Amino acid sequence: MTETVTVRVPAKVNVQLAVGGARPDGFHDLANVFLAVGLYDEVTVTPADELRVTCAGPDAAQVPLDRTNLAARAALELARRYGVDPAVHLHIAKDIPVAGGMAGGSADGAGALLACDTLWGTNAPREELLDICAELGSDVPFSLVGGAALGTGRGELLRPLEVGGTFHWVFAMAERGLSTPAVFREFDRMNEGVRVPEPVASQDLLDALAKGDADALARTVSNDLQPAALSLFPALADTLAAGRAAGALAALVSGSGPTTAFLAPDAESARTVGRALTASGTCRAVRVTESPAPGATVLG
Ligand code: ATP
């Protein structure tokens, strides 16, 4: 029997995040273009006496270790559906910033699900894994599939997208996190009395992705949550300005923030933007990476 399984899962950036008005159930319809980026968490699962979660990494202190952790919830749901005893130790090696708008918790949920499915030999069909992911949260299905995808509904209905080349990114981590629900509340407050249009994916943006054209992608990226994130965290404007001044083709808030994302024309320019952001003193840490990245992958 397999004794331990490790799964690597990528973070994401939303190159488009179009947000509709609040629905009666409080959720928002989205047109969400996800791109997986080369910044990863690793989830390792090992048989244990009872379900237990540990976490290591710079943001580990902010990660809940009880059954609210998305990794634990994923394991419990798979165990429930297949009648398996969920007695495992889930260890998260965390490199994705917590509450950073990069779907770190979602990555751990998808990672734990695939790791447990492999360890227990449950071999759940892909459709069932995706169904569990959607139950755990809007961004979790994308963490499982990776690459690039258009998410509609709450973001959980996914259509894979073609990406015709490598895009170079720099991510600036902020000094503190932002709560996704708080950013949506601020979005609602700022749009009170406004008729918010139906969210639609930009065809120009999808074409730019398909061609691997960074200039065209830079012209078309958009994030409807950015004004709300900036309203709650005004200092992010300084980080965005520092990246633009250093030559980024586009600078935007990643998802609900507060991580900021910078698209660069090539790897060398990405390193230049990264160094300038570090020197600017407007962020806690900087990471230079590429996209697209593969979805949840069993290692070894
Ligand atoms: P998204 O981009 O999907 O909106 P995020 O990246 O902004 O999410 P997360 O890092 O996923 O935010 O964390 C949001 C909250 O979820 C955390 O503050 C934490 O309380 C909770 N959480 C639950 N499980 C995890 C996990 N495995 N890792 C990190 N946070 C988790």
What's this entry about, in short?
The protein is an alpha+beta fold and 300 residues long. The chain has helices at residues 70-82, 104-120, 126-136, 140-145, 180-190, 203-211, 214-220, 226-232, 236-245, 267-280; strands spanning 5-22, 28-47, 52-56, 88-93, 148-152, 157-160, 167-173, 222-223, 250-253, 260-264, 285-291, 297-298.
Structural description of this entry:
- GO terms for molecular function: 4-(cytidine 5'-diphospho)-2-C-methyl-D-erythritol kinase activity; ATP binding.
- Keywords: ATP-binding, Isoprene biosynthesis, Kinase, Nucleotide-binding, Transferase.
- Residues 69-147 form the GHMP kinase N-terminal domain.
- This protein has 300 residues and is an alpha+beta fold.
- It is 35% helix and 28% strand.
- The chain has two domains: 5-161, Ribosomal Protein S5, domain 2, CATH 3.30.230.10; 167-291, GHMP kinase, C-terminal domain (Alpha-Beta Plaits).
- It has helices at 70-82, 104-120, 126-136, 140-145, 180-190, 203-211, 214-220, 226-232, 236-245, 267-280, and strands at residues 5-22, 28-47, 52-56, 88-93, 148-152, 157-160, 167-173, 222-223, 250-253, 260-264, 285-291, 297-298.
- Strands 1, 2, 3, 4, 5, 6, 8 and 12 form an eight-stranded mixed β-sheet that branches. A four-stranded antiparallel β-sheet has the order 9-10-7-11, sandwiched between helices.
- 52% of the residues are buried.
- The structure holds adenosine-5'-triphosphate.
